[in-house]
Design goal:
4 helices, 2 domains, globular, about 20% helix, nine-stranded mixed sheet, 13 strands
Length: about 200
């Protein structure tokens, strides 16, 4: 930007949102408190100077992996909003094998009790142990137990589910369960950019 023909550097007038990557272990709840006294993800997080941490979506108690948290409720809502179509990626261990017909059905879409759902992508990942097979799947929604219900619709039971990616962010290999890491400002700006609609 120029003023009187001279370049002017603009400073950001609003503080950039903070975003945490948290590796949620199985057995933790994505809630602030549990009447049953079960552990919650919020108990492990650092103090936030303004507001409070907001989870970007939820992972059920039996699902582990990447959970994003932010001190900006607006950013959390935008990341979850269907119009931005954030890709969610999961590693899935299923009891049984997806045949070509079942795989195509999951890509085309199946009717669940809360509407039609489909995977964008399904890739076999190897690492087969006995009757179990590993798959990497991606979808653009975050409905309750959606991945598990999609596999159940074609007769397979999910025995392990790990979220490995959300939009442009992926679970770091060196981030152990129960640990968190703050996203650097450049990556936060990528997230903000991904939730900006071009007019």
């Amino acid at each position: 930007m120029c003023l009187d023909g001279l370049p002017v550097a603009l400073r950001e007038t609003t503080e950039l949102a903070r975003v945490l990557l948290y590796h949620k272990p199985v057995g933790e709840l994505v809630t602030r408190s549990d009447p049953g006294g079960r552990p919650t993800v919020f108990a492990r997080l650092p103090h936030v100077s303004r507001g409070k941490w907001a989870a970007v979506g939820r992972l059920d108690i039996n699902t582990s992996g990447l959970l994003l948290l932010t001190d900006s409720g607006e950013l959390a809502n935008r990341l979850m909003h269907p119009r931005f179509g954030m890709l969610r990626e999961y590693a899935v261990r299923a009891l049984g094998r997806l045949g070509p017909a079942e795989r195509q059905r999951l890509l085309n879409g199946v009717e669940l009790d809360d509407g039609r759902a489909a995977f964008e992508r399904i890739d076999a990942q190897g690492g087969d142990t006995g009757a179990n097979r590993w798959y990497r799947v991606a979808l653009r929604e975050g409905r309750n137990r959606e991945v598990r219900r999609l596999f159940e619709a074609v007769g397979l039971r999910v025995s392990r589910l790990v979220r490995i990616g959300f939009g442009p962010v992926h679970l770091p290999r060196d981030l152990d369960p129960g640990q968190w890491r703050e996203l650097e400002p450049r990556r936060v700006r990528e997230l903000l950019s991904a939730t900006t609609l071009s007019e």
